[in-house]
Design a protein that fits this description.
This protein has about 260 residues and is an alpha+beta fold. The protein folds into two domains: about 90 residues; about 150 residues, Reverse transcriptase/Diguanylate cyclase domain (Alpha-Beta Plaits). Helix content is about 60%, strand content about 15%.
Length: about 260
């Protein structure tokens, strides 16, 4: 199966029960600490109101102010940590479900699983199978000039375009960073180029920042029908595009390398 990083499983990230229990336990400790601090503050304030002649009154008011500031800081820390925990839980649920949280595309693990299945089916039936390997051109420059928030919106836009240009059994995937892939069963390399051109055309007319794509296309080689070979040939086509200046589509097939 085509994978280049460890699969995400319950064993590698902890069980769902562990994942839920740790944040809940931490929040319980925060609530207890906040409750004790609030109770101490109320006791001191009650004492101050009932004993106005106490010579230590100014000092006690200072203590109340310090405690109130501490309670406020504790509340802010708890709120920030809770937001972080919720974001991590959403990301974890998405990855366990096989979906990239930012773009809505499949994760690499799911692509590998589908690729194995589709290669076995294509080898058995003699039907075509194609793969697009997609890189966002100069994406590092986009992050540096416009910031990561805009960079994320660019990736979200690309994910939406991929999802809008696929059939129910195609597999759009985010491999990581600015790298995407699209597995196209029942389509030969000529048809895959048509899909790639449509994706590039849709991207050119969308988004707040103009970006282009470099795309390598490969078709399943009947003499060597493996995921490794399919990915390697799409990668070679993609490298050819990058060496030629980016913003193009190249096809790697059993015949010569073709470039658009």
């Amino acid at each position: 199966m085509y994978t280049t990083k460890q699969d995400v499983t319950a064993d590698t990230i902890g069980t769902p029960a562990d994942t839920e229990a740790r944040p809940k336990l931490w929040m319980a400790h925060m609530r207890i600490g906040f409750g004790i601090l609030l109770l101490d503050t109320l006791v001191v304030m009650g004492y101050l109101l009932l004993t106005p002649a106490d010579p230590h009154r100014p000092l006690l008011w200072v203590m109340v102010a310090i405690w109130c500031v501490g309670a406020g800081a504790l509340s802010v820390v708890a709120s920030v940590n809770r937001t972080h925990i919720e974001e991590r839980e959403r990301s974890l649920r998405a990855e366990l479900a096989g979906t990239d949280e930012l773009t809505g595309c499949s994760v690499r693990r799911v692509l590998g699983q589908h690729m194995d299945q589709e290669i076995e089916r294509a080898s058995r039936t003699g039907r075509p199978l194609s793969l697009l390997m997609i890189d966002v051109d100069e994406f590092k420059t986009v992050n540096e000039e416009y910031g990561r928030v805009v960079g994320d919106r660019v990736l979200m836009s690309i994910g939406a375009i991929l999802l809008a240009n696929v059939r129910s059994f195609d597999v759009p995937s985010r491999l990581g960073g600015d790298e995407f892939a699209l597995l196209l069963p029942e389509i030969d390399t000529s048809g895959a180029v048509v899909v790639a051109e449509r994706i590039c055309r849709d991207l050119a007319g969308s988004g707040e920042v103009r970006v282009t794509l470099s795309i390598g296309v490969s078709g399943l080689n009947p003499s060597m029908p493996t995921a490794e070979r399919l990915v390697a040939e799409a990668g070679m086509a993609l490298d050819q595009v990058k060496r030629a200046g980016r913003d193009a589509i190249a096809v790697r097939s059993p015949g010569p390398l073709l470039t658009w």
